[in-house]
Amino acid sequence: MNINHRAAVLVVLLVGILSGCGPTKGDAKAFVQKINSSNGRRLVNLYAQYQGEYGSGPKSDVIFKKYIAAKSPASLEEIGVAPGSIDKLFISERDGQPFSIRYGIPYAGGLQQAVVFESQGQGGKVNVFFFGLKTLEVTAGEVAAYKDGSKDERPGQ
Q1: Which residues are bridge partners to 122 per DSSP?
Q2: Alpha carbon distance 132, 143 (integer Å)
C-alpha cells in the first residue's frame, strides 16, 4: 500500500458525501467542519496531511508548526484555525493544557494510530485522538500505552 492510499480513501469518502451519500447531504463545508470540530481533531488531520506529503509525521512541534503556518489562510480558516493563532491550536479546549503529540509516525495504511493526547483531560479521563475520526476517552493510566504505539490496531482487531 502506498502513501497516497490514505488520500485516495479520503477522496472517495468526500465524493460519496458530496454526492449525497453521507450525513451532510452534499454540504462539503459542513463535513469539513464536522471532522475538524476540536483542536485535537484539527491537529490529527493536519498531521495526516503532513504524513501524506512526506511519508511520515513531522519530527517535532517546530517542524509541525512551520508546516501549518505555511498553509494558506483560507485553508486554515476552513478547518477552524484563525491565521496567526497556530499556537492556540496546540491547546486542548477541555483542559486548557498543551496537547502531547506522537511525532515521527511513519505511514502505515489501515493501522489505527493514536496521534494527539490531552495532558489532563476532565474527570480523570483523557481524550486520545486517532487518524480518521476515532477519539477515545481513557484513564490517565492508560495513555502511555497509546503514546508508545502498543495500542495501535489494524481494523477488525
Answers
A1: 125
A2: 19
pTM for the full predicted model: 0.81
Interatomic CA distance for residues 120 and 66, integer angstroms: 26
The one-letter amino acid code at 25 reads K
**Could you tell me how many residues make up the chain?**
157
Rg (the chain; Cα; Å)? 15
pLDDT in tens, 123-150: 999 999 999 889 999 999 999 999 999 9
Eight-state DSSP code of residue 142? G
**C-alpha grid cell, residue 85:** 493563532
Task: Please give the biggest Cα pair distance in the chain.
Answer: 43
Q: How far apart are CA 106 and CA 84, in angstroms?
A: 29
Element (H, E) at 149: none
Q: Using an 8 Å Cβ cutoff, are 116 and 47 in contact?
A: yes
